[in-house]
Amino acid sequence: MKKHTLSVILITKNEADRVEVCLRSVVDIADEIIVLDSGSTDETVDICRRYTDNITITDWPGFGKQKQRALDKASCDWVLSIDADEALDDNMKQALKQLLSQELIKETAYRLPWGVTLYGSTLKYGRSARSVLRLFKREGAQYTLDEVHETVIPVAGETGTLKGLLLHYTHRDYGHGLDKAAQYAWLGSQKYHRKGKKSHGLLLALLRAIWTFFHIYIIRRGFLDGSVGFIVAMTYAQVNFNKYVGLWLLERDK
Question: What transmembrane ranges does the database entry give (predicted)?
Answer without folding.
Answer: 201-218, 230-250
